[in-house]
Amino acid sequence: MVLRVWPQFGNETALFICSCLAIVPLAGWMGRATEELAEHLGHGVGGLLNATFGNAAELIIGLMALSKGLTGVVKASITGSIIGNILLVMGLAILGGGAKFSEQRFNKTGARASATTLTLAAVALTIPTVFHVTAAGRTGAWNLMTEQKLSLAIAVVLFVTYACVLGFELITHKQLYAMDPQDQGEEPKEVSSWSISKSLLVLIVATALVALMSEFLVGAVEAARSALGLTEVFVGVIVIAVIGNAAEHSTAVLMAMKNKMGLSLGIAVGSSLQIALFVAPVLVFSSYLFGSPMDLEFTLPEVVAVVAAVHLIFQISGDGETNWLEGVQLLSVYLILAILFFYLPERVDAG
Amino acid sequence: MVLRVWPQFGNETALFICSCLAIVPLAGWMGRATEELAEHLGHGVGGLLNATFGNAAELIIGLMALSKGLTGVVKASITGSIIGNILLVMGLAILGGGAKFSEQRFNKTGARASATTLTLAAVALTIPTVFHVTAAGRTGAWNLMTEQKLSLAIAVVLFVTYACVLGFELITHKQLYAMDPQDQGEEPKEVSSWSISKSLLVLIVATALVALMSEFLVGAVEAARSALGLTEVFVGVIVIAVIGNAAEHSTAVLMAMKNKMGLSLGIAVGSSLQIALFVAPVLVFSSYLFGSPMDLEFTLPEVVAVVAAVHLIFQISGDGETNWLEGVQLLSVYLILAILFFYLPERVDAG
Amino acid sequence: MVLRVWPQFGNETALFICSCLAIVPLAGWMGRATEELAEHLGHGVGGLLNATFGNAAELIIGLMALSKGLTGVVKASITGSIIGNILLVMGLAILGGGAKFSEQRFNKTGARASATTLTLAAVALTIPTVFHVTAAGRTGAWNLMTEQKLSLAIAVVLFVTYACVLGFELITHKQLYAMDPQDQGEEPKEVSSWSISKSLLVLIVATALVALMSEFLVGAVEAARSALGLTEVFVGVIVIAVIGNAAEHSTAVLMAMKNKMGLSLGIAVGSSLQIALFVAPVLVFSSYLFGSPMDLEFTLPEVVAVVAAVHLIFQISGDGETNWLEGVQLLSVYLILAILFFYLPERVDAG
Fold it and tell me: A347, C138: Cβ pair inside 8 Å?
């Protein structure tokens, strides 16, 4: 934790790397606190809570970047968070869990509902790009304004859908997200060692520190990027997303290794879902306050990456069981996408 | 019903709106008659029957539009009917049913067979567009004639596949589409109040009147469109498709609210399937009679819309159960697609 | 078998056709030998063995074509083998089996694992094309070298993933691929009539002869192609792939008709999987030895074909049961794709 004061004296690249390192132990604390809290609140709410706190950092980074007009980085980090949670976090969790258990089971209906919501989100994030490509091919009639209106309308639909999803998960069908019978079978209900208030306090403090580190990180990112020879899209989609989701990361893997695959899936997929249906719309709305409206038009590689990731998690979680090979499959696709974004040349246009 | 004589005296936009309104009660009658008939014939045949009568209107509209050379509108209404049935009709049915029942079940194998046929149809309708894009990029070698031959060949394959699907549903595996045990459990077999002949008569008369109204509607569509400031593709994909499928609409929602989700799905998905595998090929064949050959090359937004809709219904129906959130998810995607088609500028080319 | 000496005296087109005909009985011998061997070794290893021997021919054809610098034909035959095995072979097997049995069952988890690996492969084979399209739109920054590096990196990921898949199928989860209880129920364990060594000998000799025939075939393909008026992509994707997979073909259909659907699926899907994850990477690696590096950038129609085929087999095999209609659906899509490749004009660029 002391690391956070050091970077002030170093150069930008050192600050960037130190911020990254500092987030790892903080994420560990967040994971621990969330796990304790989840013991008190049940799996569904616990998972939701973790996803919320994990994404608080992303929301703050996004807002800061927007205030500086860096819509490109913000959009790349939205895509990166979605695929990072689905492919990297979930892949490592399934692989980690699968190394210990031959087969892990979880509630199929809940997993399918989340996967379908992700598909909806993937369609929503594809549409502005489809519009852009189609409208650009029809001379004269198209302008940027229409594209922003389209994105704004889609953001509203996503936001309302998110409210429905919360109503489903927390009110009408909460039993689907409650403690799975499989989970209980593996492990006797342990006595929680932290109280609710202690867990809450640790969670809030750790989240605040993660957000602070993230701020240093974003501030130093431009300089570090050119020093390390990475493209903007690679940093946004891969680096920032990996760091920004370190919290979900450690918790999801931890849960999977305790054979609580339902909670693990709830955290990782729930986080992707929240980025797409809550963080992305809020960032679009906020961009109007900052005077530099952000649309939801992504590049073709980003659209393909999101569609591929969402399809894979549906295929893997649809049968209510996982094994180590499925973890490897998710990680392979992540690696292939990371290679794509690494080799992809910079966009030359001004936007 | 008296409404149908009024529009003659009004202007085009009024005629357009009145035709729309007139179709609603007629669709109600069709729904009632079909339901009565379905009681006599069993769910599978009943669902098929309803889809056939629902699509008779579409076929007639399509033929009339073709005779006037309006291939653009015809193609848009094909896409619109497919996504309208899957997303709007099925979305409302699942939401309506889900408001009353926490979980609704139906035969999984039948639903999966329909979903796979829809995927096949989506591939078939994507191919001419893929051909167009690829061939257009290869100078010289391409011409419109080849594209029409390709579409004709695909129409033949779809038509033959449809015959196979009917053989499967009505002969070799009809038990999959018979009265579901779940449906029977909810409701005692009620005594049918209409005879077969009365049901049939009402069905035929109502269908004829719907077709007539549709004719007024199509005739007035151009004038109304410019008066209301809507694009051609929006009217074809959204407005005409919604009106043209009002019959399936009311019946499917009614059935879902009676917890007969199997029949509801059979109507909505069966209707989409029939549009793609029967109406579309017949329209392609007929276009040669009218001397203005129609191909099956759709725009990118239409292809994306169909693929997204077909994928979503597969995800939702693949596990043999539905809940209200799945209805919301289908409706959200419909809304997002409607927004896309609303903002999409007109195609500027002559075709 | 005597046919193989005749073609030497005929012209190129006759040689082409005779080679094709010669492969059919040889494939029958391979099928028989593999079946015998599978009796000794169990279904999983038997299926893998058959896929390996079936693809030895493809690998040899590929290497010979690469040595002549025909990367276009090699890439087309990779795509063609993947879709041919999934759509044509599996389609005929399911239809053949479905003609005798109303419903055929197999291990769902194994089938889903294979389908997910195929999805991964489809994503991997899509990425270089996405890169190409995106990078080509960004002036200046792109060059062919980067594209080759990207393809090489993806080939490495695929190769490593294949090793993991083998570890899963043969070591950690071999029970999923073992003799299905359903299969045993249908047919009493028959006494194997051939010994392991006899089976092995026949298998090796038949494979060698198939490879030899394939060589004649490839040598004559150019002349035959222009004589018959077929495009290069049609010959690569459809003709060579059909002949090259005749072995899997006859065996898979034979197994399906004996109601051993698990083995049938293992052969056809396993063969596609091995082409994508083993043969394709090995060909990329080898292309560097021949001095004409091959990338994995496919044309849009090829990418769409692979994605469609992979998605369909996932939909069809995901529920662990098949019926004849699913065979018809696969064959319809194959037919539609064959029509597309038949009408598609030649690529005009030099590559």
Answer: yes
Q: What is the pLDDT of residues A152-171, one digit of tens each?
A: 999 999 999 988 888 887 77
What pLDDT is attached to residue B183?
47
* Residue B16: predicted pLDDT: 77
**Reported confidence tier of residue C9, pLDDT bands at 50, 70, 90:** very low
Secondary structure element (H or E) that encloses residue C351, with its range: none
- Candidates C304, C333, C343; nearest CB to B146: C343
pLDDT score of C158? 93
State yes or no: pLDDT of B247 exceeds 60.
yes
* Sign of the C-alpha dihedral computed for residues A184, A186, A189 and A193 taken in this order: negative
Give the pairing type, strands B104-105 and B321-322. antiparallel
What single letter denotes the amino acid at residue A142? W
Separation in Å, CA of A22 to nearest CA in chain B? 39
- Which three-class secondary structure state does DSSP give residue B6? helix
Distance CA C170, CA B56 (A): 55
Binary contact (A315, C119; C-beta < 8 A): yes
Pick the closest to residue A343 from B181, B26, C297, B154 (CA basis).
C297
Q: What is the pLDDT of residues A198-219, one digit of tens each?
A: 888 888 888 788 778 777 777 7
Whole-number pLDDT of residue A118:
92
Q: Which amino acid is at A213?
A: M
Percent of chain B with pLDDT over 70: 83
The pair of three-digit structure tokens given for residue B75, joined into one six-digit string: 């193609």
Query: Residue C41 is encoded by which pair of tokens?
Result: 């070794």
Q: Do B112 and C301 touch (CB under 8 A)?
A: no
- Give chain B's length: 351
Q: How far, in Å, CA of A348 to CA of B152, rounded?
A: 43
Helices (H), chain B: 12-41, 43-67, 71-83, 90-100, 108-136, 144-167, 181-186, 196-228, 232-234, 241-244, 246-257, 261-274, 280-289, 300-317, 324-343
Q: Among A69-73, B88-92, B255-259, C167-171, name the most confident range.
A: B88-92
- C130, A300: Cβ pair inside 8 Å? yes
How far, in Å, CA of B317 to CA of B114, rounded?
10
Look-up: residue for tokens 């570090």?
A224
Taking Cα atoms as reference points, which of A279, A277, A285 lies closest to residue A310?
A277
Q: Give the model's pLDDT for residue A241.
A: 76
CA distances from residue B94 to A166, A182, B239, B326 in whole angstroms, order as listed: 18, 30, 22, 7
Residues near B40 by beta carbon (within 8 Å), at least 6 away in sequence: B192, B196, B199
Cβ contact, residue pair A168, B343, below 8 Å: no
C237, C77 contact by CB (below 8 A): yes
What number is the ipTM of this complex? 0.83
Taking Cα atoms as reference points, which of A334, A214, A218, A319 lies closest to residue A261? A319
C-beta of residue B63 within 8 angstroms of C-beta of residue B73 = no
Residue C125 pLDDT? 92
> Which of A322-331, B35-44, B144-153 is least confident?
B35-44
* Mutation choice for B interface testing from C95, C302, C304, C334 by most B CBs within 10 A: C304
Which residue has tokens 């589409």?
A: B177
B224-243 pLDDT, tens digit each: 777 777 877 788 778 777 77
Tell me which of B112, B307, B321, B332 to substitute to probe the interface with A (most A C-beta atoms closer than 10 Å).
B332
Give the CB-side neighbour count of residue C237, counting CA atoms within 13 A.
26
Q: What is the pLDDT of residue A92?
A: 92
Among candidate residues B51, B44, B39, B43, the one with its CA nearest the CA of residue B195:
B39
Q: How far apart, in whole angstroms, are the C-alpha atoms of residue C298 and residue A315?
A: 25
Q: What is the CA radius of gyration of chain B?
A: 20
Strands (E), chain C: 104-105, 321-322
